[in-house]
């Protein structure tokens, strides 16, 4: 199992994020991720992609990425370019988290975008096909309901092969996001009330995703949950979820003090 920290893109001092990412890397964390909101916060908001570029330049090992980018309000060819550029800058450390986006009013309707769940899901699926196609570095065309590409070839390709890993987020117990996640490189389940998933829910989601997998390639299963403060209890809980098939454990941090406390904490697995 790997461990990461995920934080809102509401920290206005990017130097704080860079410092915390360096602390997390030194402590043994495996990932450092930023939310991708544009209008959801009633306060400060920064662009996560620019912040991630600064973090990439400040670190050397830790994985970085968005948790998660709502592709329905992005141009997929722009995201394809941004992600490859970040992958090159970080020497192959990027993970692209994607989802429908939330909340649909502030993130979509209030900005003139269609908030309908079905439309956003259609755009998400088309965007993923386009991004994957463009990352191959060959001539590419696409004709969908929402997007069209007549003739494009995007180079350079990502450092990572066959592509930058794509994690798909979704709200359980909706099934469609997890059928989508099964087609890509990882599943990131959440609950609408933001409560942590129970052990039984993790097992049910994992089984559902596995039933819809089309290949035996490695596939990440990501949960967001706070570790117990006691080191022994943290190791035991993480080990139990690892046996259940969880490959990434993501901790949240919501203010500067909490971010630094978690970044300086050593992740709980014994071998670390």
What is the CATH H-level superfamily?
A: Luciferase-like domain
How far apart are the termini? 11 Å
Output the radius of gyration.
Answer: 18 Å
**Can you give the helix content as a percent range?**
25-40%
Derived from helix and strand composition plus strand pairing, the structural class reads alpha/beta
**What's the mean pLDDT score?**
95
Low-confidence regions: none
Give the strand order, joined by hyphens, for the main sheet: 1-2-3-4-7-8-9-10
Summarize the main sheet: 8 strands, parallel, barrel
Proportion of beta-strand residues = 15-25%
Instruction: Provide the CATH topology.
Output: TIM Barrel
Question: Domains counted in the coordinates: how many?
Answer: 1
Order of helices and strands: EHEHEHEHHEEEHEHEHEH
Total strand count, please? 10
Overall morphology: globular
Number of helices: 9
Describe the model:
With 272 residues, this protein is α/β, with parallel strands linked by helices. It has a single domain (2-263), classed as Alpha-Beta Barrel (TIM Barrel). The chain is 38% helix and 21% strand. The protein has 9 helices and 10 strands. It has helices spanning 14-27, 48-58, 76-89, 104-107, 117-135, 176-182, 199-211, 231-243, 256-263, and strands at residues 2-7, 31-34, 63-70, 94-99, 140-143, 148-152, 166-172, 186-191, 220-224, 248-252. It has an 8-stranded parallel beta barrel with strand order 1-2-3-4-7-8-9-10, surrounded by 6 helices. A two-stranded antiparallel sheet has the order 5-6. Helix 1 packs across helix 2, helix 1 packs parallel to helix 9 (256-263) and helix 6 packs across helix 7. The longest helix is centred in the middle third of the chain and has 19 residues, at 117-135. The protein starts with a strand and ends in a 9-residue tail after the last helix. The relative contact order is 0.15. The mean pLDDT is 95.
